[in-house]
Amino acid sequence: xxxxxxxxxxxxxxxxxxxxxxxxxxxxxxxxxxxxxxxxxxxxxxxxxxxxxxxxxxxxxxxxxxxxxxxxxxxxxxxxxxxxxxxxxxxxxxxxxxxxxxxxxxxxxxxxxxxxxxxxxxxxxxxxxxxxxxxxxxxxxxxxxxxxxxxxxxxxxxxxxxxxxxxxxxxxxxxxxxxxxxxxxxxxxxxxxxxxxxxxxxxxxxxxxxxxxxxxxxxxxxxxx
Length: 225
Known about the structure:
Blueprint: H1 7-36, H2 42-54, H3 57-68, H4 73-82, H5 90-100, H6 102-114, H7 119-126, H8 131-142, H9 144-159, H10 163-169, H11 179-188, H12 192-219
């Protein structure tokens, strides 16, 4: 059996790694705020964050396509700055992946932060630790399980994206053709052997991710507030 090209797999891994890194930076403060705030707008922010879970990927991809179009304010500004378009580019895929995978980063982190309780942070405050010091030295280490779960699930979810990335990036070999789109194209052209190989890779990867999360979550110590 002829092996399929590895370009889409490599591009998917790059996209997943970049989206996970960006979401750790953006999702951590958002999850922390959601876990600690008593604001009345918290349910609204939680709903917006979770929206990609219930919206059809093509709907989300359509609106992201409009937002990143050169005719929109964001797409037009990007063209002026970089002389390239956000649509049908790796950067466009990254923006779409960050939006689409946001709940997979924020929700596990929020749950981990909420499980801390206020005791550890009050103890850190009593020792005159600043809020940032308390987060970095107390909250973050105690929430390691949440960070691990959020990062792994975000990475795996990005690997398997289809509808959103197809709408925003199309199917440009070496540029926006990720593994899920490659599988779809192989099926469309009746190249079932190559589609089967790539699909099997994704299935084994998803299984390995779940085993990794369950095994390491059991080995990590559980914090009791």
